[in-house]
Design goal:
The chain is of the alpha+beta class. It has helices at about 5, 15-20, 35-45; strands spanning about 5-10, 25-30, 50-60, 60-65, 70, 75-80, 90, 100. Strand 7 (about 90) and strand 8 (about 100) form a beta hairpin.
Length: about 120
């Protein structure tokens, strides 16, 4: 699946707005997508480092129109935690020298609120 097919839309509620300060963003995702696919899609689309992905299936509500009763479809929600303080990675290279690798990650998703 393409990243554009995995992430359907952002979920904007009061609770999701409060969690954005902690680096948690809420998305409606494809029902067949796994946590690993969701993490890769968010990293590719928004250029952020994903730390954690929590998913849940939201059951559809029962609706009534006149005499007929129906149900809205079920959908999958993902809460993605990103790294709000990306830092340089250091490891030991040849000869025991410390090597720094700096990755260009963003610390927030600017496109989330349509900015």
């Amino acid at each position: 699946m393409l990243p554009e097919e995995i992430i359907v839309r952002p979920v904007i509620t009061e609770k999701s707005n409060d969690e954005m300060q902690a680096g948690k963003y809420t998305f409606e995702v494809n029902k067949k997508a796994t946590k690993v696919e969701i993490a890769k899609a968010v990293e590719k689309l928004f250029e952020v480092k994903v730390l954690n992905v929590n998913t849940m299936t939201v059951k559809g509500k029962t609706k009534r129109v006149r005499y007929k009763e129906g149900k809205t479809p079920d959908w999958k929600k993902a809460i993605v935690t990103i790294d709000t303080n990306p830092s340089d990675k250091t490891y030991l290279g040849k000869g025991g020298k410390a090597v720094k690798v700096s990755k260009k990650y963003k610390d927030a998703i600017d496109e989330f609120m349509g900015a």
